Amino acid sequence: MTLDLEMEEKQTVSSEQVTGPDRKMERPKVRTEALNAWYGTNHVLKNLSLDMSEHAITAIIGPSGCGKSTFIRCLNRMHELVPHAKTSGKVILDNTDIYSRGIDAVSIRRKVGMVFQKPNPFPTMSVYDNVAAGLKLNGMKNLEKLDRAVKRSLEQAALWDEVRNSLFKSGMSLSGGQQQRLCIARALAVEPEVILMDEPCSALDPIATAKIEGLMTNLKEQYTVVIVTHNMQQAARVADYTAFLYLGELIEYGETTQLFENPKNELTERYITGKFG
Ligand SMILES: Nc1ncnc2c1ncn2[C@@H]1O[C@H](COP(=O)(O)OP(=O)(O)OP(=O)(O)O)[C@@H](O)[C@H]1O
Ligand SMILES: [Mg+2]
């Protein structure tokens, strides 16, 4: 990182100034209000206020360690699974603060699904069981219903045609790109409302990446999609809105074309033109 401290101080903006691409976003599906997160005493997210729209893809970009993964893990209460991790502020899903008293974290994780950087199918399970696992856990026993849900999820994940004749092979026997789509199918099976994806293509080749990107674009018709990506071209290709984080702060948030073509903040400009990262 070549950034000097003086520049850092000048450019770091109070997050109150950058709540959303426009404050009038009609119906944000998820919004954070002054969200802070810590690991022990390490304060890694600072007052993030961000509206994420329904039926849109929001990309989170920023240099390594700036808090992107932490941010999305706060959106489905996975952050608290880390010992000594804590949060303050609000994460509002529809009209409910998911951190308010009496809200069950497991039910939030069902509504807000997550796909990770490395494809992580359950290693001992077949393709079918990987997709059905969450439904079975939720108590679905009817085989016809399970079959239908597995097919629907694999279709949505653009994998059905490739695995329809090998549903009972191990999930691990698939290629990396197929495994990632299997993990997406697994996340979709329980019918979430929001899908979080943490660098879902970083382990994939360009063809598999293109498939996942096409899939994301289809998914936004039905879901709210939030992705973390290191790949600026990917954000520019798929995201409707892009948020730039730096050292745990939200520096700029806007419509993707505006942020990439006409960034308002000099730090954003320096980052997207590859001057640091
Ligand atoms: N499980 C953890 N325990 C302690 N500190 C953590 C943990 N996970 C992340 N951190 C710290 O929190 C900060 C933000 O990390 P985070 O993983 O959210 O960054 P990131 O933007 O996703 O980075 P990358 O692009 O490398 O994935 C870093 O300083 C990191 O060291
Ligand atoms: Mg990360």
Description of the molecule:
Helices cover 35% and strands 24% of the residues. The protein is α/β, with parallel strands linked by helices and 277 residues long. The relative contact order is 0.19. Strands 6-7-8-3-9-10 form a 6-stranded mixed sheet, sandwiched between helices. The structure holds adenosine-5'-triphosphate (ATP) and magnesium ion (MG). Adenosine-5'-triphosphate binds next to strand 2 and helix 2.
Give me the CATH superfamily: P-loop containing nucleotide triphosphate hydrolases
CATH class: Alpha Beta
Q: What is the fold-level CATH name, i.e. the topology?
A: Rossmann fold
Counting DSSP H or I runs of 4 or more residues, the number of helices is 11
Q: What's the gyration radius in Å?
A: 19 Å
Summing up helix and strand content along with how strands pair, one would put the structural category as alpha/beta
Which molecules other than protein and nucleic acid are bound?
adenosine-5'-triphosphate, magnesium ion
- Approximate strand percentage: 15-25%
CATH architectural category: 3-Layer(aba) Sandwich
Q: How confident is the prediction overall: mean pLDDT?
A: 91
Order of helices and strands: HEEEHEEHEHHHHEHEHEEHH
Strand order of the largest sheet: 6-7-8-3-9-10
**Largest sheet: number of strands, sense, barrel closure:** 6 strands, mixed
- The dominant shape is globular
Measured as a percent range, the helix fraction is: 25-40%
